[in-house]
UniProtKB/TrEMBL annotation:
It comes from the Bacteria. Keywords: Membrane, Transmembrane, Transmembrane helix. This is Conjugal transfer protein TrbC. The chain crosses the membrane at residues 61-82, 94-113.
Length: 123
């Protein structure tokens, strides 16, 4: 039985050089844009407790919706790659259910903030 063919050494070197080139280009782009950034000091953006709670609500909704989108993507990929495997299909369904729960919690975030406003005394 013949031995498996070894990849050519030149192809591996080209890949390494290409990877190093991409890393150097990314480093140049990232450092050059950061070097021109101006320093700004912000002590506080929110003037009232109501604004703070609204900002918290917006952050919670954004984070939960982002996680839910990632879970939907994972569920879709698992379902596509399952190839009829019942275990993988069940895992995909579980990820889809978790995404639905994430969107449900994101939808309930304004209600939670309203309850916090009632407790804290915000108008």
């Amino acid at each position: 039985m013949p031995a498996p063919a070894r990849p050519r050494r030149g192809a591996h070197r080209r890949r390494v050089v290409l990877l190093i080139g991409w890393l150097v280009a990314a480093g140049v782009l990232l450092t050059s844009s950061a070097a021109r950034a101006e320093t700004v000091q912000v002590v506080a953006l929110a003037q009232t407790v109501d604004q703070v709670l609204n900002n918290i609500r917006n952050w919670i909704m954004g984070i939960l919706a982002g996680i839910a989108i990632v879970l939907f993507s994972i569920a879709g990929l698992r379902y596509l790659l399952a190839s009829g495997d019942p275990g993988e299909i069940e895992k995909a369904k579980g990820a889809f259910k978790a995404g639905c729960i994430g969107f449900g919690l994101a939808a309930l975030a304004p209600l939670v903030v309203e309850i916090l406003k009632g407790i804290v005394g915000g108008v």
